[in-house]
Amino acid sequence: MADVHYLTAEGLEKLKAELDQLKGPAREELAKRLRFAIQQGDLSENADYIQAKEEQGFLEGRIQELTAILNNYQLIDENAGARDTVQIGARITIQEDSYEPETYHIVGPREANPVANRISHESPIGRAMLGKRIGDIVTADTPNGSITFKIIAIE
Predict the structure, then answer these.
(1) How far apart are CA 122 and CA 29, in angstroms?
(2) Which residues contact 49 (CB under 8 A, 6 or more apart)?
(3) Residues 6 or more apart from 91 whose CB is under 8 A from it?
(4) Residue 95: what are its φ and ψ, rounded to 5°?
(5) Phi first, then psi: what are they for 37, rounded to 5°?
(6) CA nearest 65: which of 108, 19, 28, 119?
(7) What CATH fold (topology level) applies to the domain 5-75?
(8) How confident is the model at residue 121, as a pLDDT?
(9) What is the pLDDT of residue 1?
(10) Which of 32, 44, 123, 145 is the 20 to 30 A CA-CA neighbour of 6?
């Protein structure tokens, strides 16, 4: 069985919009470029044709990838209300030592963006937090070494 892809409602809409764009305008534009390149003659030395064929491969591959994701996703319930434990979709406030508290949104890997404080449940920190409660001390083994922090809040 294929892996389930966890998506927020926002992430789901973005992927649907991207798929629509790729299947419609992007495919049409690429088809025009291919037709023009073919009309140029000798395809073996036609750089425009070669580049357009490579782009077509990438475009079709991305369409297949998005289709697979959208055929097997689980919507993350971001409005679950009060939570006792850390789950996918939760917003978690943590504090490491004497640093300022930080809040993270636990999302699926497709939507992870650490710069925007969106971390994957499959990341070392996300995995370490799953199932934990407010007040728990958590240690996560990251590529930069172990970090220990306390869970301050779960929303």
Answers:
(1) 37
(2) 34, 37, 38, 40, 43
(3) 103, 104, 105, 106, 154, 155
(4) -140, 125
(5) -65, -40
(6) 19
(7) Helix Hairpins (1.10.287)
(8) 94
(9) 46
(10) 145
Per CATH, the number for 91-154 is 3.10.50.30
Q: Where are the domains of the chain?
A: 5-75, 91-154
> Radius of gyration (Cα) for the chain, nearest Å?
22
What's the mean pLDDT in 4-24? 94
Q: In sequence order, which residues have a C-beta less than 8 Å from that of residue 122 and are 6 or more positions away?
A: 108, 109
Say how far apart CA 21 and CA 38 lie, in whole Å: 24
Q: Which of 73, 72, 34 is nearest to 55 (CA)?
A: 34
> Residue 93: pLDDT above 90?
yes
Q: What is the mean pLDDT of residues 45-68?
A: 90
How large is the average pLDDT for residues 83-107?
92
Number of Cβ within 10 Å of residue 94's Cβ equals 22
